[in-house]
Amino acid sequence: MTTTTSKIRSFNRFYTAHLDILSQHYLDSEYSLTEIRILYEMSESKTITAQKITEILNLDKGYLSRILKRFLKENLIEKVTSSEDKRAFNIKLTNSGNELLSILNTKSENKIEGKIEKLNPSEKEILVDSMNTVRNLLTENKIAREDITYRHEITPGDIGYIIHLHGAIYGKEYNFSTDFEKYVIKTFYDFLEKYSPENDRIWMAEYNNKIVGCVAIVHQPNEEAQLRWFLLDPAFRGLGIGKRLLTDAIDFCKEKEFKNVFLLTTSMQDKALQMYKMMGFELTKSEEVEEWGKTFYEERYDLRLIG
Amino acid sequence: MTTTTSKIRSFNRFYTAHLDILSQHYLDSEYSLTEIRILYEMSESKTITAQKITEILNLDKGYLSRILKRFLKENLIEKVTSSEDKRAFNIKLTNSGNELLSILNTKSENKIEGKIEKLNPSEKEILVDSMNTVRNLLTENKIAREDITYRHEITPGDIGYIIHLHGAIYGKEYNFSTDFEKYVIKTFYDFLEKYSPENDRIWMAEYNNKIVGCVAIVHQPNEEAQLRWFLLDPAFRGLGIGKRLLTDAIDFCKEKEFKNVFLLTTSMQDKALQMYKMMGFELTKSEEVEEWGKTFYEERYDLRLIG
DNA sequence: AAAATTAGTTGCTTTTGTCAACTAGTTATA
DNA sequence: TATAACTAGTTGACAAAAGCAACTAATTTT
Question: Among A65-74, A114-123, B177-186, which is the least confidently predicted range?
Fold first, then answer.
């Protein structure tokens, strides 16, 4: 057995104790954790059947039936016979049910607040980030498309992080040395020197407040523009992020009425290449080069925008 | 209520479901989670009293007494009257008790193994690291000094990340604009251009494989050296990381027999300044400047190494 | 030396959860 | 289209889990 699993077990034991969910009464209320979870499930899905609840929470239907009976008597829920299936009921929370839940939520949040009050804001940030990481890694579906956000204003730290991503990802995927990162640093310095908010733009895709993908448009003479720094963290590929970034970039070029967009890439970047072609880019130049400890073809792709 | 707490609540709900601790029988054994926790507590501390267990696990002593009675009957534990206190018993696991626990451990590890089998080794590492971070932050002792690691070989992604840290931290702490980051990029480009592994070095302090602090020594003409890019993530201050980095840097200068180390800083960086003075640096120059949207004093500090 | 406190046991009770038999409506099948 | 098989939910009977209070015997405090 690896040490990874034993470390996880150790964390599980810690977190079981931390959650403090083993006492019968949830947050000193007159309800048990099971009852609260039932109420919570109802609030999550607006309307739900008893059957569904037994599936989600893994409860005995007889047991649940009795709990629901009590909830009904206490006016926490409403039951309406389902129109599709007259055996079943659509259950939903009443106002007082929702009220109870919101009181408990507040209590729970206060309790959490108490546990993290000694942390400073950046420690809190680290905590939440780490929790998200744990959750993402343990979830089947991994990353949800809706959790990706997009923006294009440069804030302090962005450029450095994008340079970091270039160095780290190309280092890992293609074994590029740190010389490549140095080259990226140079390109970004030049970009920032000539940066014009009017005609240049960087788009960033973020997950958990961390940049996971980017692309940029850099204006060039003669109504041309260069597409640069198209990059996607390998863990975030196949989610449509690349397409979204490229579309935004090309739309920007159209809006600014650039007549031609070009990009320089290498024959190695097969995944990115595929996307460029999909967006309409065509190969216009190919040249063998030796750099960052590798031999490859440096290629130019062009996309004409206005006939 | 901040979003931090609601994010934590969300994680708690997720992890409660993930742990799957709400079913009566732990891992299909004939024992409940409470019983297993009791056995576990006994295995952790070799020998323990019932009183101690009730304190740790928050159990009713009558309830525990009966569980222990059953354990005794099943030959899982041994009770020996304490020599210090004749009311109490020292309880410990028998061989078959230990055996039971080790079977359950294996089962539990298999279950965990199943949940993480799709992760690659680096993802597993990230998972364990993040769990440690969560645990450390939720435990009194916060970040453990032992979890900080130090290194000084530059790997792809490092420089970009250090630039990022400069931009993000100075942006947050002193409201520096992205122009500052651009300046940092320039300094790093120049550094890499002239980089000599013999006479230049960057030290990095890491936590969970993320850089949280750094410092560098850059060789200069006339047997001088410049100390640059001394930076510490605010969440990691006060742990002795800064002192360690500066000591390593100065030791390196001594080893290379540089006669003088200097550094340029601003009057704003009070925390870093304090550390410089502690290491023996003395103010040699001060000049008012206006940059990155701020007015401040640019100062030079020197440390003579050889008389 | 008496009073107060503590470790652990036991009887009694409530709460929580399980199982199986049942009703009534739905779906599959031939 | 009638019947068999199945499903949503209810109910009775019961077992397991947990809590409370009174008790014994040893220890500590005053």
Answer: A114-123
